[in-house]
Each structure stands twice: as C-alpha cells, then as structure tokens.
Fold this sequence. Notes:
Blueprint: H1 2-11, E1 29-32, E2 36-37, E3 43-51, E4 54-62, E5 69-83, E6 90-102, H2 106-115, E7 129-130, E8 135-136, E9 139-140, E10 147-155, E11 158-161, E12 186-188
Antiparallel strand pairs: 1-3, 1-12, 2-3, 3-4, 4-5, 5-6, 6-7, 6-10, 8-9, 10-11, 11-12
Helix pairs in contact: 1-2
Amino acid sequence: MKGKIALALIVGTLLIAAPNSFAAPALDGKWSTNCFSSSLFLKSAEFTSFTGTHETLQRVFYKDDCQTLGSILTITGTISTGPLKNSNLLGIDLKVDAATLVSNDSAFVMLLNLGGVCGLHGWKVGEARNVAGLNCNDQTVPKVGEVVYDIFRVKGDSLWFGDTSGGRDSTSEATRPINLNEQKTFIRR
C-alpha cells in the first residue's frame, strides 16, 4: 500500500507555465512552499527558481515531517510570461527541457521499485531517472518540448500559480487555469 501511495504522490502538482517572450522581473529568485501533507504517509514541499527566462521546479517528497528526504522530482525549462485576454492575471508558459526523479534514500528507492513508479524499475540510490512524458500514477509528466500553460500572481514576497483542478490541467491554452490556487503559497527566499 505504501508503494502505491508513494507512486500516487510522485507527480503531484508539477504544472507551472506562461505566454509572451519576456521574463517577468518580479519572478527572478528562489521561491518555496511550506511543507504540506501529500498523503497519509508523506509530506512535500515545492521549490522553484527563476533566472531570466529559465525555471527550475522541484517537488520534494519527505519520509516524515519534512526532515528526511525521500525523492525529488525536478522539471526545468524556459518560460515566457505576459498578460492574458480578459484577465487581471498574468500567464506563464513553461517549455520543458527536462524532467527527472531521484532519491538518495534506500528505503524510498525500495518503494519506487516496488511500485514501478512511472513504469520504471531498477531505481538506484542517487540516480536521476528521466521521467519526461511518462505516466506516473495516472498523471503524465510533461514531455521535453511540451508547453505547460499556467497563470500566476506576485504580491510582495508571495507567489501563487493556477488551480489545476476541474479540467484546468495546464496541458493546452484551452485548459489553462483561470483561478489561482490560494491554498499553496510560494514565499520568496
């Protein structure tokens, strides 16, 4: 059961994205969420950093109360941002360059192998595996070259992205979120 739960959590909320060819200066820097429960057994935190038009997004899965690292899902890519029609929010599109999953914990690697996370077996401690385009527990990690369409708002040192529920999964312009996920706040670090 724990293996299946770990599998369910690996992808989580990966989707971040946007529209024109200029980088929003307000995004530059490092941002992170507080630790949150992502299941009965695991906790997570998300980290994102922006440098010009480059973004690195990491979802960290912990084995306990955000003390012992379980695994890290990393998605990197190029962003573009800009205004959206009929919205007071900004769009952010992420063109994916890479998506990897790695664990430095032998017990967590055992769970990854038991669950066949992302359809892969043979997980090894410290080995980053390419998961771009793979289906990880009924959620597909974006493919290299794919664009993820999202929205965002920055207010002071707080950042919010779009709510990807209700069919607004960020996989196309038509499914770009229209509301912010105000339950998950990124804080500038």
